[in-house]
Amino acid sequence: MVLMGSGFFFLAVSAIGLIRMPDVYNRMHALGKCDTLGNWLIILGLILLIGDMTSIAKMVLIIILVATINPVMTHLIAKTSYNQGIDLLKGSFYLDAYAGPEKGVVERSEQEG
Q1: Cβ pair 73, 63 in contact under 8 A
Q2: 93 phi and psi angles, rounded to 5 deg
Q3: Contact, 111 vs 100, CB < 8 A?
């Protein structure tokens, strides 16, 4: 029950982060971390609660799927947002790995797009 309660806490924190964070990149960070951990804790709590081998196998498969799909989709959303030119919060800095050594760290509001 402690694992499930902790999982619900992390899911609630991710929902609050979705509402409170100012831009898409901060929202993704809050959701990606808390959502994955919350799902894992709830499923681990269910594994301990149920105890049936068939159900445990299914829940372990769900944990593996969440562990692979959630980070990939978060990265895909971040890359698409960056390519579409969605701005960061004013005053945020980022390291543009594609810019080369002459640009380095730039402020997003100085960029075009």
Answers
A1: no
A2: -115, 155
A3: no
Residue of 80, 92, 78, 64 whose CA lies nearest to 31: 78
Domain regions of the chain by residue span: 2-110
CA angle 12, 73, 4 (to 5 degrees): 30
Best CA proximity match to 25, nearest among 92, 107, 96: 92
pTM score, two decimals?
0.74
| Average pLDDT over the chain, rounded to an integer | 84
Tokens 């050594």 -> residue: 101
**35 burial type by CB count under 10 A (0-12 exposed, 13-18 middle, 19+ buried):** buried
